[in-house]
């Protein structure tokens, strides 16, 4: 039997996510009073706050996990956080002459805050829907949450990226169950706020290749282990 969808919980989650985002990016209430890195985090905190509030108010089960299927937290942390932080900050040093390690981990935490909402909560809540329908709903809600609603070519491209990101990140979450893993993948786009050069595109492709290979190999290992146990 397909799990029942709690539309009330989803509504509460989304209202909180939108309100927090609006306060952060459409007003000066926060930006004028906090450090830039704190401001980055506050821009993405809404989905996490909304998720935890909805779970508490509606007494929902909370399947969210930082490590997911991995035996401990160290493995996904090293592969999906430490590796990109080292690679990308090294690239930044050669391109811009800076080594922004604090910025790198700020971006990763920002990705985690979003992923708690979009994957950890919303994707779990929409499990009862057909896969394409679930992806479409998450993509549209995620796009609207950014509050860039002008129907410009750039925003239409962004909507396309959001849709394929919802599908791809959702696949990784389904395979790993790890919020650390999907936060790392999510953060790739957010690292390059100045646009993507050829060198940066090569880094993105290389990291995605490493991650996809790692996810596939580890998934097969877990599957084989379960088969032996049964």
From TrEMBL:
Protein name per its UniProtKB record: CAAX prenyl protease 2/Lysostaphin resistance protein A-like domain-containing protein
InterPro entries: MmRce1-like (IPR042150), Rce1/LyrA-like_dom (IPR003675)
Organism: Flavobacterium ginsengiterrae
Keyword annotations of the record: Membrane, Transmembrane, Transmembrane helix
Pfam families reported for this sequence: Rce1-like
CAAX prenyl protease 2/Lysostaphin resistance protein A-like domain location: 99-192
Residue stretches spanning the membrane: 7-25, 37-57, 69-87, 93-113, 125-145, 151-170, 201-218
Top-level taxon: Bacteria
């Amino acid at each position: 039997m397909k799990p029942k969808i709690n539309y009330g919980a989803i509504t509460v989650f989304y209202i909180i996510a939108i309100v927090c985002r609006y306060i952060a990016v459409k007003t000066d209430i926060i930006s004028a009073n906090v450090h830039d890195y704190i401001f980055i985090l506050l821009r993405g905190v809404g989905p996490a706050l909304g998720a935890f509030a909805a779970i508490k108010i509606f007494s929902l089960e909370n399947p969210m996990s930082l490590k997911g299927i991995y035996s401990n937290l160290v493995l996904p942390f090293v592969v999906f956080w430490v590796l990109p932080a080292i690679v990308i900050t090294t690239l930044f040093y050669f391109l811009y002459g800076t080594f922004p390690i604090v910025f790198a981990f700020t971006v990763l935490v920002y990705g985690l805050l979003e992923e708690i909402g979009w994957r950890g909560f919303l994707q779990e809540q929409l499990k009862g829907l057909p896969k394409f329908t679930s992806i479409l709903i998450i993509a549209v809600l995620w796009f609207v949450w950014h509050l860039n609603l002008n129907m410009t070519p750039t925003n239409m491209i962004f909507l396309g990226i959001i849709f394929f990101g919802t599908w791809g990140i959702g696949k990784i979450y389904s395979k790993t169950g790890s919020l650390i893993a999907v936060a790392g993948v999510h953060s790739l786009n957010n690292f390059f706020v100045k646009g993507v050069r050829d060198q940066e595109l090569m880094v993105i492709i290389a990291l995605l290749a490493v991650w996809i290979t790692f996810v596939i190999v580890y998934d097969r290992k877990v599957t084989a282990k379960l088969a032996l146990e049964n």
